[in-house]
Amino acid sequence: MNYKNIILSLITVLFLNNTVIENNKKFNVLFIIADDLNCDIGAYGNNEVFTPNIDELAKNGVLFENAHVQYPLCGPSRVSLMTGLYPDQTKSKELRLYVRQTIPDVITLGQRFIMEKYNSIRVGKIYHYHNPRDIGTSGHDDHFSWDQTVNPYGRDKIEEYKLNKVKENFDGATLSWLESEGLDNEQTDGIGADETINFLEKFSKNNENFFLAFGLYRPHIPFVAPKKYFDFYDKEDMNLPSNGNEFLKTISPPAVKSLRARKEQINLDNSTIKTVKKAYYSTTSFVDAQIGRVLEKLKETGLDKNTIVVFTSDHGYHLGEKGHWQKQTLYDRATRVPLIISGPGIITNKRTNSPVELVDLYKTLMDLTGISVPGFVQGYSLKNILTSNSKPIRKSALSELRVYSNSALAQGYSIKTDRYRFTKWEHKGKRYSELYDHKYDFNENKNLIYDENYNKIKDSLEVILTKRIEEAKKKPNGLGRQFENAKPTFEPVRMYSSKKSKL
Hints:
This protein is of the alpha/beta class. It has one domain (27-395): Alkaline Phosphatase, subunit A, CATH 3.40.720. The chain has helices spanning 3-23, 52-59, 74-83, 87-90, 99-102, 109-115, 155-158, 188-206, 227-230, 253-259, 270-300, 332-335, 361-369, 383-387, 455-473; strands spanning 28-35, 61-68, 119-124, 148-150, 164-165, 176-180, 210-219, 223-226, 307-313, 318-319, 325-326, 336-342, 350-352, 356-357, 397-405, 408-416, 420-427, 430-437. The strands form four sheets. Strands 1, 2, 3, 4, 7, 9, 12, 13 and 14 form a nine-stranded mixed β-sheet that branches. Strand 15 and strand 16 (408-416) form a beta hairpin. The protein is globular.
């Protein structure tokens, strides 16, 4: 017997077995979501904003130029994302709803990873939290989604009393800002980045699979960041948006209401507008820096070779465009979000204008990690776009919004194709429509609904939208119970901060 050949054979078998094990190793997921971040990012073509780390992530993966949320408000959007369901299916269209108030039997994204023996970890804000009120609490979190959670609490919350505000009576939607003293890791999101880094260190050593969700509280109001980020920008360089008053004459009452809900934010003086924009961009740069710290650790540990990275936001954000600040409209500024996905096997430095929805992320992550998808999950997997030069997977992205106008509830639905936005509102028995052509009007300033040259386009888009609404309202098989008209919960006890009480 040739012992040399036997030994060589054994070595070969061991090598092949290890190779198979390595090739079959499950992918991890690092999910990063910012709060109220629009597409004013370098990688998305905005040269005013300094976001080197997000820009670098885009070079290493696929950037979706036409990604949209299903509801441009924190709570409903996050519930939709984490369940793979449309708001008409989650029955969640309010801020202060826990996901299981309306769909108690749902298997959330984090929960599905737990079922596959992943460590499902939440750091910061994934489900809805009032910001800054709920910082340091569990907000409206779903404990079934996680093995472990961390609620960071930083200087930005402690020094809330120092805020500059456009009105005295502060709430979570009051335009406000602060050039903070101190270091990044004294801020809530800096602490969150530290905690996320610690988890990456841990997983690099124990070799366990993870779904690690890092939710940043910024750039959501109040716009707070260390002073060095404010020093990136000159207030006088900030562009002034149109006040939108003429535009209001071309749209319906509920659409007007969505743009003029906050009276104190209408017709701000130019100095205040520039100050607020500078503060928002400064906070965006701070968010970018924290993401950079986390991604650097991912690479340093070698986990990047086996980890899918998803970066997005819960909705877009108006910065004075059409005279509106914040979200809760059916225009691109509110529904469109950054979405970048990178990782092993994913094409690098690719951009796509394919309309996609955040509801697609559940199926996408299941597909990329080889995990079976619960039958109720909606949307499409984006895997083919991520790994090949495939055609767009859908023709439109669907968003919806409810507003109260003239003491009555108005329901709006909107689709965004690769070129057009078409919106329908129903209010007090009347129907209204809007149409925008992004080829000539990227900022959606000219409503073409009465332009006869677009009649055929309008008719075809109406058919598509009607079908999309019908599909989004169907109860999916396997979802379990749905409860209509659930009441928003009481607020958690507020953790006040003031000169007299510094928590």
